[in-house]
Amino acid sequence: LYQRYEALLAVVYRFPQAHETYMPIIDMVDQAVKDWEAMGADSRTDMHTLVQMLYRMSRYTYNSLHVYRHLVHSLIRYGDYLEAELALHAYWGECKRYLEQKRVSGTADKSGGDSSAPEAADRLATDMTQLTVEPVVPERRKVEQESVSDMVQTLVVGAHMLNTYLDKFRDSHDIIEAALALSKEPGSNLPGRLLAQVHHQMGVSASQICLRAEDPEKRAKYQELALQSYRKAIDLDSSDAEIHYHYALQYAVSRNTEQAVLTVKQAIGLRPDHLNAWNLLALLISSQKDYHRALKICEVGCRESEWCDIDAEIQQAVLSHITQCLIYELLHGPQSAVQLHSILFSLYGRIYGQEAGSHPQNHTALISMTLTHRPLLAGFAASPGIVGSGYTGGSVNTNHLVSATTASGRPSSSAGVVPLLPPTSGGEKSESGEPPNSGSQDGKSRSGDGTGTGTAAGTVVGTAPGTGTGTRTGGGTGSRSDTTKELYKTTLRRQRARKTLADLWLISAAVFRRLGRMKDAQAAIGEAENVYPDYPAVWCQYGLLMRRDPSHQNVAAIRHFLTGVALGPQDIPTRVHLARAYMRLNKAAIATGLLQEVTRGTGWDVAEAWTLLAQTTLGEGKVQLANEYLVFALELENAKPIRPFQALSW
């Protein structure tokens, strides 16, 4: 029906001039979007059809905010986030013209908007005296209106996309500022929940900029902005559990543990199945060194949550089970952790099975792990609290798995790497007294300044290849006719799968290293390298492994640490371990420079960095300054969770 109607409109209408608005086309677009939503047509084919129709209709309109708005929402639902970003910026440009026109005219639009009426003089000539613009603006105001509420809603949805999928926090911050300016327009009368979402997204973007800020003053500024934004959002809508969760997470990264616990409990009270909130509460309790209670919270959170096949929720399940395994290892030793890690690999197979099947070269390590531990998994099915709702017991389904070959085509070396029971029960404590999560794979690589460097959501935030900003040729919101082309949403999911699998292998490698099983640790790191060769944490683990080898020690370790720093210049754990290696070679000046850069920047809350800096400072004879560093390091260590709060997803 719409194809026939569209063909009829194409015969009647041509490309409009600046003073023309074809309302039948805009009415058809509005009705089509309503019909798609009413029918629940959210499949890829249905959304592709709608998006292509919107592209074609944009040719018969002149910067229509209706078409731009529908394009933004439809492209986000479709999963083409890069195209949605282009449409969002086009929409944002029209909204900015609206604000500029309001400032120039000094009068409020009683009808709620005219932002689809850009000045014709800006488009047709630089000399406004050559044009008669008075008849143009009233006509467009009369025939096409865009309410302030629709503008703000679209900007909020776009900002959420930039924060969640593209990691462009500064762009999101600017867009939310535009939304706030629109909300203050006379006569806007926006609902409280919409305003709450505006402040919520402002808080999220400010929080992410704060995490990536190298300058302490800038970090403090955005931290306060984030807290204020969350408070305003809660005042406007106190029933949103997600706002409470982000508010608590900001308190947690600011080391305000008491307030964070109170706030996250409110989030759990509003939504008992919020896995991230349970995970945050477990980390907060672990920072108080009450590990038994933290483990119990993990178990309760897994039972309360019934996560389904939604990207955000399944990622929360992985994060929650990793936290659970780390606490279990701390309480019961590395030998028990080896058995629990097999369950993590099984969970990974259930979540990312399709990715493993379609890209075998990235997931070969999973095959040998699941096959090796098939008898063990059935025994753990009856162990309550260890697996929670993420594992239903029984044998491992390996039908979707492929032959065990690595990315280079050779047979996987992981077969037999992880035996059913480790030979010894002894463990190794890290040299800095860290809990079992010591190592780069459990740290957070807080890199960049939030200007668009993409990071894949996962256990550790690193610089995953292909994430973040995408480069397009041709520009504009051009049409895409290939329905088989991979969507950016699919690309992000595959990158998340690769990174999660690499994290699991690195966690296992750290456990083997603590057990003194160096060959198994090296094999596990090799599997992580096959999955994700550009991951800084892989080379950090190689460096830690070489440091334990008497024949290599610090020289080989430094070479691997430098590789990790080259791949991730802002990766905090790698830089700290590199500084320690230089200290062992009596190169205190180099180590001091690295540690000062870390502690002044995003690694200000890393206790080990301050401890090492105190040692180098003491070597320079600065006793009082070294004592201050040690006191601060002790405060951080006493409030240190089992893994960084930044590892949780925003």
From TrEMBL:
Top-level taxon of origin: Eukaryota
Residue stretches of biased makeup (Polar residues): 404-415
Disordered: annotated span: 404-486
TPR repeat residues: 241-274
Swiss-Prot/TrEMBL keywords: TPR repeat
Biased composition annotated in UniProt, kind: Gly residues: 465-478
Protein family (similarity comment): Belongs to the YPP1 family.
Task of the protein: Involved in endocytosis.
Name of protein: Uncharacterized protein
